[in-house]
Write a structure and sequence with these properties.
CATH architecture of the largest domain in chain B: 3-Layer(aba) Sandwich
Largest sheet of chain A: 2 strands, antiparallel
Mean pLDDT of chain A: 86
Strand order of the largest sheet of chain A: 1-2
Number of helices of chain A: 15
Mean pLDDT of chain B: 85
Largest interface: A-B, 57 and 47 residues
Number of domains of chain A: 1
Radius of gyration of chain B: 36 Å
Strand content of chain B: 15-25%
Low-confidence stretches of chain A: none
Distance between the termini of chain B: 151 Å
Structural class of chain B: alpha+beta
Oligomer: heterodimer
Helix content of chain A: 55-70%
Largest sheet of chain B: 5 strands, mixed
Number of strands of chain A: 2
Shape of chain A: globular
Chain lengths: 362, 627
C-alpha cells in the first residue's frame, strides 16, 4: 500500500463516461417524476452519485489485494445479512429486499454482487491450470449459488440472475472445457422444470407473456407493449424532455427506475439511444481494456467479473424494453433511480481503478 | 486465509478481446432492434401512443324541450351521467371483462356483448354509450374501479324528464335508445346508444328536438383520467318545440275523464289547433328513459285497456248517434228531404223485412211525430233509419268521406288510424259478397261497420258546424316549424262547402240536443255558455246479446261531441267514454272542457238574457222551418 494519495494513473475517462451516463439518467428521472409525488427523486439520485464518486476515489487508493484478504469474513457477513433480511427485514410490496441502515434502505443483494466478484477473484487467484476442474466449478457454483438462492427467495429473481454472468465470465476466463459445458447444459435443462415449480405466479406470468406476447396484452405483456410503443413513438429525434406521453401519462410503469430507458428513448429518440449506447460501449470496452493489462490473475477476474455484471444488466434491461427478454426487475446501471445500484457500480468502479493503478506496482 | 498471488501467469489475450467483440456485437444488435422500432415502426407506434392518450368523447346535445301553447314546460331535461365504452383497445372487449362491467352497472352481460358486436362497424375512436342516465351507484362503482376499467368514461349528459308524468303521455310520447333497425337505415345519422323519439311528438318531431352531439378530444392518463382537453366541437342543442296544446285544458280534460277509459279531444276548428288530447288509462313516459323494466312493459302491453294506445287517434269505434249529423247533412245537401220532413216514430220500423228498434223502444214507446230538428234533439233512430233507406249507402259513404270520416285527418302524430266508412266496394273487396241493403239502415245511425276515432268526430263536427271548412288538426304551429327548417304540409284546410240551410238545420239541432227539453245532451248544459253537441251510444254488440251476456263486458261506448259557440265554433270537444253505457256520462266532460276553455280565454259566460233571446230565436227558426 502506498503512503500517499496518487491519482496519476487514475482513469478519469472511465469515471467521466460513468458520470455522463449518470447525468443522462438524472435528467430522465427528473423528466419522468417532475409532475408526480416522486418529484424529488432526482435529487436523491444526485446525492447517491456524489457519495459514489467519493467511494470510487477512496477505494482506488486501496490495494485490492488487501480487500481480497477480507473476502472470507465479507462473504460470511453477506450470507448472514441476506438471511437476516429474509427473516426480519421490512416487507415492502410483498418482498423482503431491503435493510434499514441509518435511515436509508439498502438493497443488500446489490452489494453482494461485489462480494461474489471478490470471492471469485480470490478463488482463482492462485490457480495456474489452463482449464478448470470439476471441483473448481462446484466451488464457483456454490459461491454464487448460495447467496443467489437466498436473494431469489426474497423474492428477487432479477438480482439473483445478475450473479450468473460473474460465474459464466469467470469460468470462461479460467478455461472451461467443451465436455464440461455440455454436461452443465444438460444439467440446466434437467433443472429447468424443477425451477419452474419454484417460480412465483407473477414470475410465471411474465415468462409466459414473454413466450406468447399476444395472448394477454392487458396483463404481463402489457408492459412490453407499452414500452415498445413508447420507444417506437420516439422516432429519430424523440418527443423532447418532459413530452413523452407514454411515460408522462403513466402508460409505462416505473419509468424512473427499471423502465427508464423506454422513457428516455421516447423523449430523446433514436439519436439519444445511439448516444447512450456509445457511452455504455465505451465504458465496457475500456473496463475490458484494463483487464488486458492487470498485474495478476486476481485483478483480471475482478475486472471481468464486474464488467460482466454491468454488461449483463445493460443488455437484459435494454433488451427487455423491446421484448427480447422477459420482464425481470433488473435496473439499468447508472441510469435507473436507486441508491443501492449506484453504490454497487461506483464501488465496482473504485475496485477497477485500484486494479488499474496497481498494474505497474510490485 | 492468506491469498498468494502470482504475477507471471496471464490469460491468453484473445479471451478478453473475444469478450470485447461480444460486447460490441451485442450493442450493434440492440441498435438494430431500436432502429427497427424507432425508425421502422415509428409511424405505427406513434399512432398507438396517440390512441393511448387521446380519447374522443361525445358532448351530448340536450334535446329540445316541449312546451304548451302558453310556454308551460311539458317535457324537460335534467343533467345526468352517461357511461361510455371506448373500443380502441380490442383486448379490453373480452367477454369476461365486459361481464365484469355489466355486473357492476347492473346491465345484462348479453346486452353489453351484443352492443359491442353491433358497433363493430363504427370507427374505433367513437365510444359507444353503455348506459344512459347512470345512477350515483354506477358512478361510484366505476370511480372505485378506475384502474380495472380504463376504457370506461363518464360524461355529463341530459336525461329526458316528463314533469307531468302521465299527462298527455300518448301525445308527447317518449324517448329511448335507437333501435338496430333505425341505425341500419341508409343515411341514418344514428349511432348505437343514441336517444331518439320513439312515440308521439317525440317521434314525429325527433329531427327538431334532437340536437347534434359535439365531440371533445381529451388527453387521458393510463388510468383513464382526463388530464387535459385538446379540442372541442360544441354540441348543437335541439330546438324547443311549442305545441298547440293548452296544458291547463289538457289537465281539465284528463281530470274530467277521471278513471274512465276513453279519450277527450279539443280542437279549434277554425285553425285545426289541437288544444287538448287525453287518453285514459295513461302511463308515465319517465319509465321509458332508463331501460324500461320487463314487468312495467308487460303490464303496459297486456293491459286490456291499452295504456300505450292514443285512443284519440287510434280507437276505431262505431260513432253511434253522432253519425246522425252526417246522415242529416247528406239528406239535406242531396235534397232528399227538407228540414220539415216528418216521420212518425212508434219505437221501431220494419225495412227490407227486418225490424229495426229505436233506442227508446226499451221503454216500449216511440218518439211520436218528429221533424229533422226534433229527431236530432231526441236522437230518434227511426227517423234516421228512414233517411238511410231514402239516401242509400253510396250517398252516405260519399258525404261521410267528404265530411272528414273514413280517412286520416293528417294530424302530426305517428300511427293515426283511418277509421272506416263501409261501402259496397269495401264489402266486396274484404268479404267477397254483395252489400245487404239492411246494412245501410245500421250505418245511417252510426252502427254496423262504421268506425271513427275521437279526433275524426271532433274534426267532422267542427267542420260541419263551421260551414264545411275542415282545418287539418295539428299539434305544432306551422309557422314555427317553417322557421325551424321543417316542411310541414301546405294544405291547412279542406273545403267542402255546405248549404247555409244545411248548416243552420244541423247546428240548431245540436244546440237543441243540449239546451232543449228532451234533448239527449242535457248533461252538457252550462248556464251562460253557448254549448251545442251530439250524443252517441254505440252498441258493442247487438241488444239481444247485451242482455244475455255479462253486462259489464258488453257495455256500450258513450260519445259526446260538443262545441261552442254554435254555429261557427271556436272549440270542439269530442269525448269517448269506453263502456260508458250511456252518452250522459260523456256530455258533462265536454262541457267542463269548454267551460275551462272560456276561463282560459278570460271570457265570462254570457248573460242569461242573451241566452233566453237566443232560445226564443231558435224556437222561431224552428217554427219557421216547420212551416
Amino acid at each position: 500500500m502506498r503512503k500517499s494519495l496518487n491519482f496519476r494513473d487514475f482513469d478519469w475517462l472511465l469515471l467521466g463516461l460513468a458520470l455522463a451516463i449518470a447525468a443522462v439518467g438524472i435528467l430522465e428521472i427528473y423528466s419522468t417524476t417532475a409532475q408526480t409525488a416522486l418529484a424529488s427523486q432526482y435529487k436523491r439520485q444526485i446525492y447517491w452519485i456524489i457519495l459514489g464518486c467519493v467511494l470510487t476515489l477512496v477505494i482506488s487508493q486501496i490495494d485490492y489485494h488487501l480487500i481480497l484478504e477480507q473476502v472470507p469474513w465479507l462473504y460470511l457477513l453477506s450470507i448472514g445479512i441476506l438471511l437476516a433480511v429474509l427473516v426480519v427485514g421490512p416487507r415492502v410490496a410483498g418482498t423482503h429486499r431491503w435493510l434499514q441502515v441509518a435511515g436509508f434502505t439498502l438493497q443488500v443483494s446489490e452489494l453482494v454482487k461485489l462480494v461474489i466478484i471478490l470471492g471469485v477473484a480470490a478463488l482463482f487467484a492462485e490457480r495456474r491450470n489452463k482449464a478448470v476442474t470439476w471441483g473448481e466449478l462446484v466451488k464457483l457454483g456454490l459461491l454464487a449459488g448460495v447467496p443467489g438462492i437466498l436473494v431469489a427467495l426474497e423474492p428477487d429473481l432479477g438480482t439473483a440472475l445478475t450473479y450468473l454472468p460473474i460465474v459464466a465470465a469467470s469460468a470462461f476466463l479460467a478455461g472451461v472445457k467443451r465436455r464440461q459445458l455440455v454436461t452443465l447444459g444438460l444439467i440446466g435443462v434437467l433443472i429447468l422444470p424443477i425451477g419452474w415449480q419454484f417460480l412465483r405466479p407473477y414470475q410465471r406470468d411474465r415468462l409466459e407473456a414473454f413466450i406468447h406476447p399476444k395472448q394477454d396484452v392487458q396483463g404481463s405483456s402489457y408492459q412490453v407493449t407499452q414500452t415498445k410503443i413508447a420507444i417506437g413513438s420516439g422516432g429519430l429525434w424523440g418527443k423532447g424532455l418532459g413530452n413523452g406521453t407514454q411515460s408522462q401519462l403513466g402508460f409505462i410503469p416505473v419509468s424512473h427506475a427499471d423502465a427508464i430507458f423506454a422513457a428516455f428513448a421516447e423523449e430523446r429518440g433514436f439519436v439519444g439511444t445511439l448516444f447512450v449506447f456509445l457511452l455504455y460501449l465505451a465504458l465496457l470496452l475500456r473496463l475490458l481494456d484494463a483487464a488486458q493489462t492487470t498485474a495478476d490473475r486476481a485483478g483480471c477476474f475482478l475486472l471481468v467479473g464486474f464488467t460482466a455484471v454491468l454488461f449483463f444488466q445493460v443488455a437484459v434491461n435494454v433488451g427487455m424494453m423491446i421484448g427480447w427478454f422477459p420482464i425481470t426487475g433488473i435496473p439499468l446501471p447508472l441510469m435507473s433511480q436507486g441508491g443501492s445500484s449506484v453504490l454497487f457500480i461506483f464501488l465496482g468502479l473504485g475496485l477497477a481503478m485500484s486494479v488499474k493503478m496497481q498494474r505497474f506496482v510490485n | 486465509m492468506q491469498v498468494r498471488f502470482s504475477e507471471d501467469e496471464r490469460f491468453p489475450a484473445w479471451k478478453i478481446t473475444f469478450l470485447q467483440y461480444v460486447v460490441a456485437a451485442s450493442f450493434v444488435a440492440f441498435l438494430i432492434g431500436y432502429w427497427q422500432l424507432q425508425i421502422g415502426r415509428h409511424q405505427a407506434l406513434l399512432l398507438q401512443a396517440e390512441h393511448n392518450r387521446i380519447r374522443n368523447l361525445p358532448v351530448i346535445a340536450p334535446r329540445g324541450r316541449i312546451l304548451d301553447r302558453n310556454g308551460q314546460i311539458m317535457v324537460d331535461n335534467f343533467p345526468a351521467f352517461t357511461i361510455l365504452l371506448n373500443r380502441e383497445d380490442p383486448t379490453l372487449l373480452s367477454k369476461t371483462h365486459l361481464q365484469k362491467i355489466a355486473e357492476g352497472l347492473g346491465l345484462d352481460p348479453n346486452d353489453v356483448e351484443e352492443m359491442v358486436k353491433r358497433s363493430a362497424k363504427l370507427p374505433r375512436f367513437q365510444p359507444i354509450v353503455l348506459k344512459q342516465s347512470a345512477t350515483i351507484e354506477d358512478v361510484a362503482f366505476l370511480e372505485s374501479h378506475r384502474l380495472e376499467f380504463p376504457e370506461i368514461d363518464i360524461i355529463q349528459g341530459q336525461q329526458r324528464f316528463y314533469p307531468k308524468h302521465g299527462v298527455a303521455a300518448q301525445v308527447l310520447g317518449y324517448v329511448g335508445e335507437v333501435s338496430q333497425d333505425d341505425i341500419a337505415k341508409p343515411n341514418s345519422p344514428y349511432h348505437p346508444g343514441d336517444v331518439i323519439g320513439k312515440f308521439g311528438i317525440e317521434k314525429e318531431y325527433n329531427s327538431v328536438l334532437r340536437g347534434r352531439d359535439g365531440m371533445q378530444r381529451v388527453v387521458v392518463n393510463s388510468r383513464g383520467q382526463e388530464v387535459g382537453t385538446l379540442s372541442t366541437i360544441n354540441a348543437i342543442p335541439g330546438h324547443d318545440l311549442r305545441l298547440t296544446l293548452d296544458l291547463n285544458l289538457q289537465m281539465t280534460a284528463e281530470a274530467a275523464l277521471g278513471d274512465q277509459p276513453g279519450a277527450v279531444v279539443a280542437l279549434d276548428p277554425r285553425t285545426g289547433e289541437v288544444l287538448a288530447m287525453a287518453s285514459h288509462p295513461t302511463f308515465d313516459p319517465n319509465d321509458f328513459i332508463r331501460h324500461i323494466d320487463l314487468k312495467t312493459w308487460k303490464k303496459l302491453t297486456t293491459d286490456p285497456l291499452k295504456p300505450l294506445m292514443n285512443k284519440s287517434i287510434q280507437a276505431q269505434l262505431a260513432p253511434g248517434s253522432v253519425f246522425k249529423i252526417i246522415t242529416s247533412a247528406a239528406a239535406l245537401e242531396t235534397g232528399t228531404i227538407k228540414p220539415d220532413f216528418n216521420v212518425f216514430c212508434p219505437g221501431k220500423i220494419t225495412i227490407y223485412g227486418h225490424t229495426f228498434h229505436d233506442w227508446i223502444w226499451k221503454e216500449h214507446r216511440g218518439h211520436g211525430m218528429v221533424d229533422l230538428h226534433r229527431a236530432i234533439v231526441v236522437s230518434c233512430d227511426v227517423y234516421f233509419y228512414t233517411l238511410g233507406k231514402l239516401l242509400g249507402i253510396r250517398e252516405i259513404d260519399y258525404f261521410a268521406t267528404h265530411l272528414g270520416l273514413g280517412h286520416r285527418t293528417g294530424i302530426d302524430l305517428p300511427d293515426e288510424d283511418s277509421g272506416l266508412i263501409p261501402s259496397p266496394a269495401w264489402v266486396e273487396k274484404h268479404f267477397h259478397r254483395r252489400w245487404w241493403p239492411g246494412e245501410t239502415i245500421s250505418v245511417a245511425i252510426g252502427q254496423g261497420a262504421v268506425q271513427v276515432t275521437p279526433l275524426q268526430l271532433a274534426y267532422a263536427i267542427g267542420g260541419i258546424s263551421s260551414g264545411g271548412v275542415f282545418a287539418r288538426p295539428h299539434l305544432a304551429f306551422r309557422k314555427e316549424l317553417l322557421t325551424l327548417g321543417m316542411d310541414p304540409p301546405a294544405h291547412a284546410e279542406t273545403s267542402f262547402p255546405l248549404k247555409e240551410g244545411t248548416v243552420a238545420a244541423v247546428t240548431q239541432g245540436m244546440w237543441g240536443v243540449v239546451n232543449e227539453g228532451g234533448g239527449t245532451g242535457g248533461g252538457a248544459r252550462r248556464p251562460g255558455l253557448d254549448i251545442a253537441g251530439k250524443t252517441g251510444t254505440a252498441q258493442v254488440v247487438s241488444i239481444q246479446l247485451q242482455d244475455s251476456a255479462h253486462r259489464e263486458k258488453y257495455r256500450s261506448n258513450a260519445w259526446f261531441v260538443g262545441y261552442s259557440p254554435s254555429p261557427n265554433p271556436q272549440v270542439v270537444v269530442a269525448v269517448l267514454v269506453m263502456q260508458g253505457e250511456h252518452s250522459s256520462v260523456a256530455a258533462p266532460i265536454a262541457a267542463d272542457v269548454i267551460k275551462a276553455y272560456y276561463q282560459e280565454k278570460g271570457i265570462k259566460p254570457s248573460t242569461p238574457q242573451l241566452m233566453s233571446e237566443r232560445r226564443d230565436g231558435r224556437k222561431q227558426g224552428s217554427v219557421a222551418a216547420g212551416q
